[in-house]
Amino acid sequence: MSVPPVPSDLPPSELTRMVKARPLPAAPIVIEPTTAERAALAARFGLGAVQALRAEVALEQKPSAIRATGRLQAQIMQPCAVSGEDFPVAIDEPVDLRFVDESAHALPDDDAIEIELEADDCDEIAFSGDMFDLGEAVAQTLGLAIDPYAEGPGADAARIAAGIVREGEQDGPLAAMLAALKKD
């Protein structure tokens, strides 16, 4: 299946997989980026590497949206939030998104309009035309699954080397307050 070009008004995605909105494919779509796409995703998300990524997504036509459900699995090299050294992280996340045609979500031009969002509304992705980018949705799902504060195996040693804590001492502001209370 050939991938049509991305519309010119959007910035190019590192992982473009355009899907026709009608008719939807009956079988789940499997997205596995190329080596170049994985490298571009790693650069986008500030990772050492995206070693593997696979998403399998089933599409279902709903009355006002296209529901995309499935699973994303990835192996990444992520920098430790403390030491900055890369360490391996496995990601296994559910995918549950709704693609909504922009014309179905047109709002009146009223600055005073108040909108109430339901929990499901937060995972909506608007599209226009007869195609939507499932690849970019997978890339965004990966980005949201990355823990920006993840600590690698060298985090404690980096804290000790930086003099933030002494070996054997508990770390963190609460531990420091408790230690101060014990001294009194």
TrEMBL record:
Name the domain of life this protein comes from: Bacteria
Pfam families per the UniProt record, alphabetical? YceD
InterPro entries in the cross-refs: YceD (IPR003772)
What is the protein name stated in its UniProt record? Uncharacterized ACR, COG1399
Show the taxonomic lineage: Bacteria, Pseudomonadati, Pseudomonadota, Alphaproteobacteria, Sphingomonadales
